[in-house]
Amino acid sequence: MFTGIIEGLGTLAAIKTHGNGRRLVIESDFDLNEVRIGDSIAVNGACLTAVTINGRRFEVDVSPESLATTTFNEARTGERLNLERALRLSDRLDGHLVSGHVDGIGVIQSRERLDNALLIRVAVPPDLTRYMIHKGSVALDGVSLTINRCDDAGLDVAIIPHTAQWTTIGFKPVGSRINIETDMIGKYVERFTTTARGAEKRASAVDREFLIKTGFL
After folding, report:
1. CA dihedral 106, 145, 102, 20 (to 10 degrees)
2. Cα–Cα distance measured from residue 7 to residue 29, given in angstroms and rounded to the nearest whole number
3. Cα 156 from chain centroid?
4. Is 56 exposed, middle or buried (0-12, 13-18, 19+ CB in 10 A)?
5. Does the N-terminal or the C-terminal CB of the chain have fewer CB atoms within 10 Å?
6. Which domains does the chain have, with CATH numbers?
7. How many CA within 13 A on the CB side of residue 198?
């Protein structure tokens, strides 16, 4: 689990092809003294496992499934990446609960400066906007943000100077594709209510006519 509070940036140093998957070599801007092989690190919002660590450099494997649902399929060496180590249970939860399981990809449509904030509009697939609400939480490239406005076509967020300075969201241009993880609570609520409706339908099928037909009456 993660919080969406980015610890620092890293640079994609190399890309190795492994069949239909890839291995990414990442150089972190901060020390990885407490990271061990097998630990989870969120890279641009995607939960990946460190398989080698050498100083500030670590490697992660990206499966074909992850390549299909994230921007890693388009990754290029030299690209800057948001990094966050896994949440400790004793840590403060400063952002929101982020699983690191990317739901899909959005596209930055516009960037506009308003006083001290950077207003960004992101186009989002309709199957993801269904889980977004006004003033709800969303993770964009792993950054925990508050939704200022949303509709069926996308969402608006306001980026404060600190976030713009310490994450890639501050310098990504219009047209950039970004990883999106919606608030997990909405997905669970939908699952529970859908299951409940299905149970009601199955229960309603057991009526007097059904009981006579099956020999119970």
Report:
1. 70
2. 10
3. 16
4. middle
5. C
6. 8-85 (2.40.30.20), 104-192 (2.40.30.20)
7. 6
Place of tokens 């006579």: 212
Average pLDDT, the chain: 90
**DSSP bridge partners of 112:** 119
Identity of the residue numbered 202: R
The answer to whether 107 and 122 have CB atoms below 8 angstroms apart is yes
Closest C-alpha to 98, from 9, 189, 183: 183
Taking the C-alpha atoms of residue 35 and residue 58, their distance in angstroms, rounded to an integer, is: 10
The predicted-structure confidence for 74-118, as pLDDT tens digits, reads as follows 999 999 999 999 988 778 778 898 999 999 999 999 999 999 999
> Tokens at residue 172, please?
């990504």
Give the pTM: 0.86
Beta partners for 18? 21
Confidence (pLDDT) at 216: 58
Type of residue numbered 73: N
Structure tokens at 106: 């959005």
Confidence of residue 207 (pLDDT cuts 50, 70, 90): low
Smallest CA-to-CA distance from 155 within 143, 146, 144 is with 146
Grouping H, G, I as helix, E, B as strand and the rest as coil, residue 217 is: coil
